[in-house]
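In response to a reviewer's request, we include the raw inputs and outputs for one of the modeled complexes. The two entities were modeled together in a single run.
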Amino acid sequence: MGGLNDIIKKQQEALNKPEEDKIEEVEQLVGFIVGEEEFAVPILSIQEIIKPIEWTRVPFVPDYVLGVFNLRGNVLPLIDLRKKFHAPSAEIDENTRFIVMKIKGEDVAFVIDKLTSAIRIPKKNILPPPETYSNEDDIIAGVGRLDDGRIITILKVDNLIKREEIVPDRD
Amino acid sequence: MDDLQELLEDFLVEAFEMIEEMDQDLVELENNPDDLELLNKIFRVAHTIKGSGSFLNFDKLTHLTHHMEAVLDKARKGELKITPEIMDVILESVDAMKAILEYIRDHGDDSSPDVDIEPIVKKLDAIVNGNQQSQTQKEEKKEAPKTVGGINLDEINPDNLDELDLSSLSPEELDQVLEKLVEDMNTSPEEEGIEEVEIVEENKEDTGEKKEENKEDKKEENKEIEKKESETLPSKKTSTEVTKEEQKKDLQKKIISTKEQTIRVDVKRLDQLMNLIGELVLAKNRLIKIYNDVEERYEGEKFLEELNQVVSSISIVTTDLQIAVMKTRMLPIGKVFNKFPRLVRDLSRELGKKVRLIIEGEDTELDKSIIEEIGDPLVHMIRNAIDHGIEPPEERRKLGKPEEGTIWLRAYNEGNMIVIEIKDDGRGMDPEKLKKKAIEKGIITPQEAENMSDKEAFMLIFKPGFSTADKVTSVSGRGVGMDVVKTNIEKLNGIIEVDSVPGKGTTFKLKIPLTLAIIQALLVASQEDLFAVPLSNVIETVRIVEEDIYTIEGRSVLKLRDEVLPLVNMADIFNIEKVLMPEKYLYVVILGLGATKIGLIVDRFIGQEEIVIKSLGEFLKGLPGIAGATIRGDGRVTLIVDVASLMKLAKETHNKKLVTDSLKEVKKKKEKPSDYTVMIVDDSPMDRKIMRQALEELGVNIIEAKDGLEALNLLKQNDIDAMLIDIEMPRMDGYTLAQEIRKYNKYRKLPLIAVTSRATKADRVRGVEVGMNEYITKPYTKEYLQNVIRRNLKL
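The model returned the following structure tokens for the whole complex.
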């Protein structure tokens, strides 16, 4: 009988928990590693995560634009976040993934070194980026401290790439 | 008959769609009566229906929409506030429009006896006249109710005739009353179209005569008219009448039968279908590859035959399916162009002008969605060209031009755009006059006008409310047309260019991007990168040797037959890293755009293919020299060259760089063994050591890898001249490694030497198939290995 009580108790807890979350306002993120650092983006901005596939180089673009590739009939740009963040470049290995995110209505894929985990973090644990951070182009939304002590940099997805930086003005 | 039927169908589909939208917009307008954009949109819909309706001779519909348009026009100009009462009337007229259209759909004409538009038209007129005071005198004359001898003409109709006191009228006044009556009967719903016009006119004539004789008998006479009409009408239904009726029935039947054969599909569904088929193609390609692998392994097995049949049938069906869906979306622009000869003929007759229409490029294929959008703008532009552009015959004769004016309607591909050109040899436009007009209408300030170039001045005609015509005609005017044109073209991400020379004519160029179009392309490789060059711009391809290249005034040129062409290396244009050793022959694509020709050195011709153009998306579109991308059969993306932009880039490169220098850039010449590097790939340290010792004696540099994956990475980072590859390895075996390496153009000629103890014939065959150059079986002698390496490095 004690077992049953436990289950009921757990259920109660489970029912009450989301309420607490709402009060606390939890941010749901997906964490990944690029270079030496762990980053995260809001889970809802991610369209899908795929294993690396072949891409085609494109001329006249900054080095962090690797090129374009075919995702089920759509041509998507591929951005190397290591190069974007000026980290030393690395070879693609079995942990490398392409994260497809929607930026201003367009799907764009980013190369990351490794996925870490899905993260739920209370908003109060997210601090604005410290001034010592080089926050070029307003890319960083904030810095989160996780329960296990990990520090993650939360990215502003919409600012990750800008058209005017990629395509030089013609004429 | 077929053309008319097609037009009618298009008109109906379009009109129903528009009216449905209009209903919603009107309701929204009632909530935001000041939303000028919305009002403009509604007005344009009414205008379009009126235009198409009048073209198809639906007089009743035209009559109704014309009056409705007048109300909307006033509202649009801010002279009328849309009150709920006014909205009631407008909505009522929309309902009447719907009813008439439904009748047209079911019966093929707009007689629609159940719909009486006169009361609505009167209400609409009342609205327009209600604010008449603020209008100019001219319009007042036109619109004000006519009164004759104290009788309001608008109030007369055959039913209340008896109540009128006609005795006091003069003969002229009586004439007017009678005319009005005749007009009413003409439009009265019970009567049918054209035939009665003749009858009534006859009646009018003889009543006119009698009238002179006996003024007192007017009442009787009027009754007589009615009587006569009822008598003559049935008897007048002669044989011609019957055939017309039959024709109408035929038309209806055709409409109904075609209705069953076509189906309108949301373009999005086709897009989705296209993407799914793309996936299917990839799966098919993988299936073929797997089949090939299986075939090797289970040679001679019975099930292979069956598998082969399935695979090839799937591959054929997939290819056909792909083509079929692509074609579903593409239509020749002729579908739109076809309706113009009739339009031009009718309009020029109506306006008393002589106009010839020359159509070119009607085979140019356009995406269906574009075809659908492009029709209206073109109608407006051609109407404008006839109405404003082409002068009347006498005027043309005086100017020394041929009496007959010409309008050219052309379509062609230009880079990533489809260009539709509408050109006339009429009076052209005077930029100064346009500016003046725009200032008068308050569209621009005099200061703005001063700084305006001629091209900018021409663009003024696209401003809402701008019209150069002094009088409003049924053909054009009201300044609505060009405004619509611009909106529609911009909706397609297109641009409009105008060029005009006063006295010589005007040229409009609509440039519309190919959001999805199939083109023939020549696939070429520049170093390792593939590009698709639109075949329409490829004049020829030639193979030359370095000696064919001349340097004139510091620039490289190619002498081809009698021509001297600028010559540029494609790799220099796109800053592609040079990894391939130049071969004896150089491959050149001769590109042509207009009168300009240029020779483009590539490294390989892949072949000709039909490709589907895809956009590179918001972030990458507009890259210099690149028009878009295409997905090829193997699922890889290939960039499509924008020839116009490439030519520009090529000229810059041509001025900067000699091709002969460019060809030398690749690599330093290798002479001594120490200039060469050989990679050893083997998981056994022992085997690696044996090979290393043999190679060290040769004096070449050595790099070692433990498996295929490591080897592939090292290969990319180092300059490798030959590879010794073991077959059995963890992570990636030797066969796979060779296959991967051969995928890169730059490693096409890299010597790959298999070193293995697997010695069966099947193994050797497999080795050759994946791209191994040689096959050494263990054990081997040191000398043998050294000889193989020497031979492959040409030491």
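As requested, we also summarize the result in words. The helical segments of chain A are 2-24, 81-84, 163-166. The interface with chain B takes residues 54-61, 65, 67-70, 72-77, 91, 103-108, 161, 163, 166-168, 170 of chain A (CB under 8 Å).
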